[in-house]
Amino acid sequence: MSKLNYDNKRFRGVVNYDDGDLTKEVLFHYHQKNRTVWGTCEGGRVRFGTLVANVLDDDKLDMVWQYLNIDGEFVSGRCLSVPEQLPDGRLRLHESWTTTGGEPGSSVIEEVPHDT
After folding, report:
1. Which of 111, 108, 80 is nearest to 96 (CA)?
2. CA–CA separation, 111 vs 85, rounded Å?
3. What are the strands, taking DSSP E only, across the chain?
4. How open is the CA angle 105-99-13, to the nearest 5 degrees?
């Protein structure tokens, strides 16, 4: 069973989030019930997006995602997110993803405290 809890966590990109649609203005909001995680994202060039993930035994997230950008274009793909717990207790997710069109990439998002 999962040792981490992704419920009501918010994330922002910190690596590979400085160009294209996914900039540091995009805010991700995750929810969790048992081994299912789902979330939304919006901000910057992203009008709205969603994700759904299976929490694996090692707390990695096996997910699919999609979003609509401000130009009216749909983008989607798969992602494997590897969690890291930071010294202050926040989560950092190391993401390896591939768009539906086959473009691979990687990025890192970090938990944003709710008081910011």
Report:
1. 80
2. 10
3. 9-15, 27-33, 36-43, 46-55, 61-69, 74-85, 91-99, 104-112
4. 50
How many other β-carbons are positioned within 10 Å of the β-carbon of residue 13? Answer: 22
> How does pLDDT run across 55-64, given as a tens digit for each residue?
999 999 999 9
Query: Does residue 6 carry a pLDDT above 80?
Result: yes
Residue length of the chain: 116
Report the Cα–Cα distance between both ends of the chain, in Å, rounded. 31
The count of structural domains within the chain is 1
**Tokens for 98?**
């591939």
Q: Which domain holds residue 70?
A: 9-112
Unique residue bearing structure tokens 């768009």: 99
Report which of 105, 109, 27, 22 is spatially closest to residue 69, judged by C-alpha positions. Answer: 22
Q: Assess whether pLDDT exceeds 90 at residue 3.
A: no
Q: Is 53 part of any domain?
A: yes
Q: Which of 71, 68, 34, 66 is nearest to 52 (CA)?
A: 66
Do 81 and 95 form a contact (C-beta atoms < 8 A)?
yes
